[in-house]
Amino acid sequence: MRTVRDNSLSLFFMVLFIVGFVGQSFAGWHDFNSEQLAHDESTVTWTYYVTSSSFWAAVMENWQSEFLQFSLFILATIWLIQRGSNESKPPEDVGLESDQKQQVGGYAPDNAPAWARAGGWRMGLYSNSLLIVMTTIFFLTWFAQSLTDRTVYNAEQQDHGERAVSWSSYLTTPDFWEKTLQNWQSEFLAVGTMAVFTVYLRQRGSPESKPVGAPHDQTGTSG
Q1: 134 near 72, Cβ under 8 Å?
Q2: Distance, CA of 164 to CA of 151 (rounded, Å)
Q3: Can you give the pTM of this predicted structure?
Q4: Is the same domain home to 46 and 82?
Q5: Cα–Cα distance between 170 and 184 in angstroms, integer?
Q6: Taking residues 92-118, what's their average pLDDT?
Q7: Are residues 25 and 125 in the same domain?
Q8: Residue 171 has pLDDT above 90, yes or no
């Protein structure tokens, strides 16, 4: 039970992810079959649908925008601040910070990750590993979105007696950028409002909020 408690946050969201993912697959399957019937075409099985580009295009459109949000937030909060926000670090900590504050090299404690003590390229790589992994996942999922969306787009083109387009040509179409930007703008709005809301609003007990009695201009503290 201690293991469950110590990992309850990640387990909670993993369960929500699985429920949402499966729920999306069934809702999308029924919606897809409704469209098929409306066009006098045959319906498909759930298994066929969850392996189709129609399903994965919708999934990848959301995944890539989420990882873009986190990648940009990680990068931006190194150098940019929002005074009074719990989502920002204090103004005096702008930048990469000292080795002592980051507990690397000679300042690393005995139980620090090995690469934090190693120095050189290993410490440099580990020091940026979160941003590297998040950004890599973003580009992989964005690429997957472009492939699956192109397949769906070309199927619609053929249904209307028009020519299919190459992958590079699809990247310049309004269809691709409309599906991309509608997700990006919502992520940017969510992050921006969260940064501002935590200046003035509180949630007792949450590390995403400042202490309830903290002044509005207190920056980078958790309650």
Answers
A1: no
A2: 9
A3: 0.89
A4: no
A5: 19
A6: 90
A7: no
A8: yes
